[in-house]
Amino acid sequence: MLKRLALLILLLAPLALVSVPLAAQHMEPTLSDPAAEARARTLSKELRCLVCQNQSIEESNASLARDLRRIVRERIAAGDSDRQVLDYLVSRYGEWVLLTPRFNASTLLLWIGPGLLMALGILAVLMVQRRQRRALAEAPPAAPLSEAEHKRLADLMKNEG
Fold first, then answer.
1. What share of the chain is helix, strand, coil (3-state, %, to 5)?
2. d(CA 53, CA 62)
3. What is the pLDDT of residues 19-32, one digit of tens each?
């Protein structure tokens, strides 16, 4: 009896080892309509994981990202448009949840800032160049070297070489 039990355990042990990775896989429920599921995945790529911050909820494995994916699917299943789903999540989590923020008064500087900084940089470079050109134009011409200066220069060059 003990031998049979040991043999049974020995035969079942490999099955237990194979089933552990299968149990670790967390399968999320998907929408039955392929078009709606595609919409859910597209929207999930537009939403920021609030835990990871630089990943979309589609890419993240964080539990909050799973919850947000579930909410997106629930809202789509309830008949919400893409805009309504995004508005719902923005109302709950703020603009930060969007990977690409919307263009409005509060994000105006975010959208215009880089171009404004670039224009200011170009303007600064042009002003410096203009000031340098003006300084060169207004500078008195260099006086020719005197005979003593020519001799001194020749001595210095001879000693260097």
1. 70, 0, 25
2. 11
3. 655 555 456 777 77
- What is the DSSP code (8-state) at residue 102? -
Rounded (10°) CA dihedral 117, 45, 36, 23: -170
Measured CA angle at 11 (ends 8, 12), to 5 deg: 85
Q: Which tens digits make up the pLDDT trace of 41-70?
A: 999 999 998 888 788 999 888 888 999 999
User: Comparing C-alpha atoms, which of 20, 29, 21, 22 is closest to residue 66?
Assistant: 29
CA distances from 62 to 26, 66, 110 (A): 12, 6, 28
Q: Tokens 């039990």 label which residue?
A: 5
Q: What are phi and psi of 135, to 5 degrees?
A: -65, -40
Residue with tokens 């008949």: 79
